[in-house]
Structure formats: structure tokens, C-alpha cells
């Protein structure tokens, strides 16, 4: 996923201290990406920049056109579907998680991988990678899922770039809940995906009538977001396309559903480093960002994505005012 906004505002993250349990509903906003794609952006949002090391969450439900519904799987028959040209990343990991459809991933390491529903596409940019994402030729009628970024802690932000594809993820079942652990650890089940800070990302499927409690880590902060259907998380009814920030300090999370529904649970140790997020980069200083932008523009550092039918993305202009590293809360 690329941030395709023409004038991306600097999203700034980090902070100190842990909150206790809270129930803070934060509606996402609809963001147009290019001419044919609209997404629901849940993080960063008006109130919060990060949840653990999770620093960016888009639900790219609507890939048909600007006029389409913002929420729910969209019919992309006869449309190009997702077409994200080669673009760079730095200082983060990207997580692709689909419920429907397929995305063909290419990167500057030479990876060529179709990521299918309920498979983890995990790209670690480290200090530099470039990739493209597209709906494969002859793609199916729907594309539905989430695109997420994880900030790399300072000690690992220059790590070697890597792409991982995991098709056998651990699943916890019980009480009407089925939890697939995409990344990190949940209730003793650990994803094979490489992580660089203590965190979890899980896909939760609730069947109608579910009323259960999921064991969670009181030292983590958590947020839940709805993918489809409606569910109740810690007593809060969550409409699709909203994010519920839960804070820290829980050892279990009550989950209820009257209808079949699915949501994602994101969590982690509060990310205390201050970072700068601009376009597709996570850095620590204005100079980091300026250098990354210049390196992409001049064709150095990030390598070349081969095989994509089209031009690579140009970096947007930097904002006229300086970028400052900020904390995780606004
Ligand atoms: Mn990307």
C-alpha cells in the first residue's frame, strides 16, 4: 500500500505512559487515493497516532471508484482493481490481510507473490525497499481487507529488507470465536511473522450469538476495528469502519455478536519513541525524511521493482514547514 495523497500531512507518533482501560470510539475517515480508489483510514486519526507499534491502518474496501460505498466489499469486475505502482518504504513493516480477492506483490528484492485471503503478506522495509501491488489479471469480483503498517523501533529501523508470505497462521477457537494470529502473540499462540517489538495483530471471526472473553496482555494497549458485520467489544457496539481504542490494563476482552461479524484486534506495548511518518516513510528527523525522498527521486537506495506495467510513483512535495518527531497521542 502506498500513501497516495498529493499533500500527505506529516503523521507524528510516539509518547509516554500507559493509560488504563478506556473505550474511545474513533471514526475513520474516507480518503481518496488516486483516481479510482477510496479507503477508510482508521489510523492515524484525529485522536491517536499509534496503537503499540501499529502506525497506519487502511481498509481499502472501495476499489471501484470514487462514487462507491465506503464500506463493504466492492465489486471490481471489469475494473483494474488495485493498481499501486512501485513506491518506496523506510522504517516500517507492511501487513496485507485480505478477506476476499487477491493482490500480486512485487518488490525490489525480486519477490513475486500472490497474497490470497487469510494469508499474511509481511514486508519489512528496514532501511529501504520498493514494491508494487496490483489485482492480478483475471482477478475475482471482490477485494476486501486491510492494509497496515508497523513502525520499526530505532534499534531495528536499518535492518535488511525482507518479504515473508505465511499461509499457515495459528488459529484459536472457542465459544463462537475464531482468532487468527497474523503477527505477534495472542493467548499463547504466536504468528511465524517476524516482529521487532512486542505486539499482536489478530483477525477475529464471531459467529452469531457469541458471548465470550478473550485473554489479553494487561501491559499492551489495544484497539479493535470492524471489518464486517457488527459486534460488541467490551460493551461498545462497533459499526463497520470505526476504531475502538481500548487502552491498557485488561487481562481479558469481552466480545459479543448478534450476527456473524469479523473484526481485527491490534495491540502492543505503547511505542515510546517519537517518530515522523511522512508519505511512505517512518523516520526520526527531518533529515531522514528529506534524504529518503531524495534517494527515491534520484533512483538510489530503494532498488528497482521489475515487471510492473507502468511508471513508479513520484514522491510528493515536502510540506513547507519542518517535520518534527512526535508522540503516539495527539
Ligand atoms: Mn506500500
Brief sketch in words of this structure:
The protein has 330 residues and is mainly beta. It has 1 helix and 27 strands. The protein has a single domain (11-268), classed as Sandwich (Jelly Rolls).
What does this structure look like?
There is one protein chain. The chain is mainly β and about 325 residues long. It has a single domain, classed as Jelly Rolls (Sandwich), CATH 2.60.120.10. Helices cover about 5% and strands about 45% of the residues. Strand 16 (about 175-185) and strand 17 (about 190) form a beta hairpin. The radius of gyration is 19 Å and the shape is globular. The two termini are about 25 Å apart. Manganese (II) ion binds near residues 1, 2, 87, 94 and 280.
Key descriptive features of the protein:
single chain; 330 residues; mainly beta; Jelly Rolls; eight-stranded antiparallel sheet; 27 strands; 4% helix; binds manganese (II) ion
Tally of individual helices = 1
Please name the CATH topology.
Jelly Rolls
**Helicity, as a percent range:** under 10%
- The gross shape turns out to be globular
The total tally of domains equals 1
Radius of gyration: 19 Å
The N- to C-terminal Cα distance equals 24 Å
What would you say the CATH architecture is? Sandwich
CATH hierarchy, class: Mainly Beta
CATH homologous superfamily identity: Jelly Rolls
Secondary-structure content class: mainly beta
Bound molecules: manganese (II) ion
The number of strands is 27
Low-confidence stretches: 10-16, 62-72
| Major β-sheet annotation | 8 strands, antiparallel
